[in-house]
Amino acid sequence: MADAGEAAALQFTPTWIVAAVCSVLVLISLAAERGLHHLGKTLKKNNQSLYEALLKVKEELMLLGFISLLLTVFQVTIQRTCIPPSWTEYMLPCQRPGAHRPAGVAATRARFTAADILGGISRARVLSEGEAGAEAGLCQEEGKVPLLSEEALHQLHIFIFVLAVAHVFFSATTMLLGGAKIHKWKQWEEEIQKNNAAGIGPKKVLPVQQLSFIRERYKGFGKDSMALCWLHSFIKQFYGSVAKSDYNTMRLGFIMTHCRGNPNFDFHRYMMRALESDFKKIVSTSWSLWVSVVIFLLLNVNGWHAYFWMAFLPLVLLLAVGTKLEHVIAQLAYDVAARHTAIEGDLVVNPSDEHFWFGRPRIVLHLIHFILFQNAFQLSFFFWILMTYGFNSCFMDHVGFMVPRLVLGVVIQLLCSYSTLPLYAIVTQMGSYYKKEIFNEHVQQGVMGWAEKAKKRSGLKEGHSTADSVHGGDDLA
């Protein structure tokens, strides 16, 4: 009879326990799958862009499942991989217990693997039971240590899951808060359309300096003025990032450039549809983001305070993006002021890709994607360590390094939600081209279908023309 403290294998586990646990897991999985299915059907009817974002979330869940499968399948193989104890002396995330003790404890220290360090010194232990204990014993017989312990594999598994869920959660939170800010601009759109419907009086000729858009954004010419313009753009992102005059001017510039025949075009609705479409990019996790996670885990060396310094990276990038977007609005004002001394009627700006980095407005979206992922990584890592190892864990570092990281994470989340994301939604429409969201879903599907049919027809025509040329050659022969 097995001892009470001994872990029972599956063949010695009561069937009712196995059946009960399997039933609970299957029911939870089916409930989640059905819930996502019904949510997808609802979004597909009401909002195609959010439906595509949900598909991206499903892809992330499938990737997590595959990672989980790999960790489970290769668990024994990883534990059978033995390395010399000296290899575990370098790049430790925490200082080992007894690191400054006499050399007599070296044999005891060799029992701790690199994975035990990663899993947390406070919970590290030499596995002595089951298959994992046997694999660790094989390495010890050779005078070596396992590459990664069962404890560390389990914690790494949990961390990857927490990171992916946190990224989706914080991205969705950013979209909800940013969308609420953008929704307030709807009243500006309705007011403009009411004024257009009511008609206006004769057009007035006004000096450009009297126009509110120019007065707010234009700071004069010259090197000093340009430096002042950049400084104003940096500060502007923290308060009133988009004013009513900014919205009116950029809206009219977009309409006059891309849909001149429809002055009552609902620019606000188009902007929201485009932002919802971009959400599926923001919520996804690309290979480059996973590479950045691996690099950050590599640099988490005791004494380097890597996570503290890396917390500033998303903040610096966010401030740079916000400043650039504000400066694009200022450039639109500068272009008008450089060409005109007075304006008759409405002020019209000229959207252009030249205002953006490398002439590509899409770069801003990639940067926001990276910023949100890195911020989610910082926050999820903190709370994972807190829940797993406690507040006093060596991973937490000193309070002077820990508190600023939390404050920076909250600041980044709020600034991106209430300033940078709304700026991105409207300013990136000032590129040279419009997005496909200018059409509704039915028109988009019709246009895409027409394009596919046109490609097939052109391919058939080329095939017929080639066949005719071959037959013609045969006749000549």
TrEMBL record:
The C-terminus contains a calmodulin-binding domain, which binds calmodulin in a calcium-dependent fashion. It is a multi-pass membrane protein. GO terms for biological process: defense response. The gene is MLO. The keyword Magnesium does not apply. The chain crosses the membrane at residues 12-32, 61-78, 156-177, 279-298, 304-322, 363-386, 406-427. One of its GO terms (cellular component) is membrane. This is MLO-like protein. The keyword Chloroplast does not apply. GO terms for molecular function: calmodulin binding. Keywords: Calmodulin-binding, Membrane, Pathogenesis-related protein, Plant defense, Transmembrane, Transmembrane helix. Belongs to the MLO family. It comes from the Eukaryota. PANTHER family: MLO-LIKE PROTEIN, MLO-LIKE PROTEIN 1. It comes from Urochloa decumbens. May be involved in modulation of pathogen defense and leaf cell death. It is found in: Membrane.
